[in-house]
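Researcher: Next entry in the queue.
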Amino acid sequence: MMEFFPPAVLFEGTPFEMNRIMIIRVIAALALCAVFAIGARRLKLVPSRGQSVMEMTLDFVRVSIAEDSMGKKMAERFLPLITTIFFMVLALNITGIIPFLNIAGSSVVGVPLLLALIVYFSYHIEGIRELGLFGYLKNALVLPGVPLPLQFLMVPIEALTKFVIQPFTLTLRLLCNMIVGHLLLVLCFSATWFFFFDASLGFKFFGIITIAGGFFVTLLEILIALLQAYVFALLAAVYIRQAASAEH
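Model: Structure for this entry, 248 residues:
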């Protein structure tokens, strides 16, 4: 667990103090910017393989996440935010399986919490902009068709959901997946090292099982990195759309 709380590496004792995980975040951000900068400079009418992959990914975010969840008109306005969230989460998640980095930049609470707060304020601001403050609060808290006595029970539940549970679950879903994935990888490869180099001869065979398990968990981590990026971006789009909609 101490890998999630590494010591300072640069600028110790200053507001710009950086540890290993913060450096990994910077590397992931620079790599992501470089990929898009290089891709944008080399656009061709007949796309290369790399350009095709980039265009397919961007179309996936635009169509399958933004437009399907928000409608075309709203998706045009929020596409920069949804696209940034998707690729940022993906880049920070994937560092967990990259050699010499070996830990996800999203496995410490700062980044998941920051993204959750950005989504949180985005959907509240959009709801107020579209419906007005009182219209938004009524739309968010009062369920249509529910008898008045039940509203006294449902309004606090809806308030708790909209103002506390949604950002909390956005943060924890991403954070916990990345923590658990890292711990599983450490467990598999630590066990492999033990069986191959420290265990007695009769137990060395189990190292093959643990290294196979580590390979499987690595593949699983790639899938989870993609899935968590998709889920976070999708929920951001859904929450914004729900906040701005006059109907539940």
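Model: The longest strand covers residues 8-10.
Researcher: Noted, moving on.
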